[in-house]
Write a structure and sequence with these properties.
Number of helices: 6
CATH class of the largest domain: Alpha Beta
Structural class: mainly alpha
Number of strands: 4
Shape: globular
Mean pLDDT: 79
GO cellular component, one term: endoplasmic reticulum membrane
Pfam family, one: T4_deiodinase
CATH superfamily of the largest domain: Glutaredoxin
CATH architecture of the largest domain: 3-Layer(aba) Sandwich
Largest sheet: 2 strands, parallel
Helix content: 40-55%
Distance between the termini: 49 Å
Family: Belongs to the iodothyronine deiodinase family.
CATH topology of the largest domain: Glutaredoxin
Strand order of the largest sheet: 1-2
Subunit structure: Predominantly monomer. Can form homodimers but homodimerization is not essential for enzyme activity. Interacts with USP20 and USP33. Interacts with MARCHF6.
Subcellular location: Endomembrane system
Number of domains: 2
Length: 213
């Protein structure tokens, strides 16, 4: 099968999930717009905040890129391991419970929602703005900011991906993904985040192999 045929096949496989993501973003924007209209009619002061649409050209490019990264990732389960906000509390709990039997590493990749790109509203008190990474120093600084803001357990190492996005491309991370490496082989490769990102599966695997903590 030629390269063009392979690319076309992958595109056709991606389209259904891509359009479902677009539908979700459209529904999200509609709900937020309705909320703002209701608050405006009630003359609530809460309407003073800026409304940022999620379904934008920048957003669509980011979503499409994330599916391409997933489709063309260089690793899969049982293959050799490439060397290369809401879930963080649950992840921290896993680190604290299983750090005696497993090493934890968090790789900070290309920012999914930079403030000068596909930005999202920051309603959480833990949210913070990060601009697009222009160089390795920017990315390392953003990783340090994440480490300070979320107080990750010291047992978890935090590193930043290179500017050529080596880890992101190898593992098809965008926007987030968990994998378990054992004896230099990938024994668990989680789904693509944010919708198929499942830490409960990771916990189940750890409990099955090392027992409950």
């Amino acid at each position: 099968m030629g390269i063009l045929s392979v690319d076309l096949l992958i595109t056709l496989q991606i389209l259904p999930a891509f359009f479902s993501n677009c539908l979700f973003l459209a529904l999200y924007d509609s709900i937020i717009l309705l909320k703002h209209v209701v608050l405006l009619l009630s003359r609530s002061k809460a309407t003073r905040g800026e409304w940022r649409r999620m379904l934008t050209s920048e957003g669509l490019r980011c979503v499409w890129k994330s599916f391409l990264l997933d489709a063309y990732k260089q690793v899969s389960r049982a293959h050799g391991a490439a060397r290369g906000q809401q879930q963080l509390p649950a992840f921290s709990q896993l680190v604290e419970e299983f750090s005696s039997v497993a090493d934890f590493l968090l790789v900070y990749i290309d920012e999914a929602h930079p403030s000068d790109g596909w930005a999202v509203p920051g309603d959480s008190p833990l949210s913070f703005e990060v601009k697009k990474h222009r160089n390795q120093e920017d990315r390392c600084a953003a990783a340090q900011q994440l480490l300070e803001r979320f107080s990750l357990p010291p047992q978890c190492r935090v590193v930043a991906d290179r500017m050529d996005n080596n880890a992101n491309v190898a593992y098809g991370v965008a926007f987030e993904r968990v994998c378990i490496v054992q004896r230099q082989k990938i024994v668990y490769l989680g789904g693509k985040g944010p919708f198929c990102y499942n830490l409960q599966e990771v916990r189940s695997w750890l409990e099955k192999n090392f027992g409950k903590r």
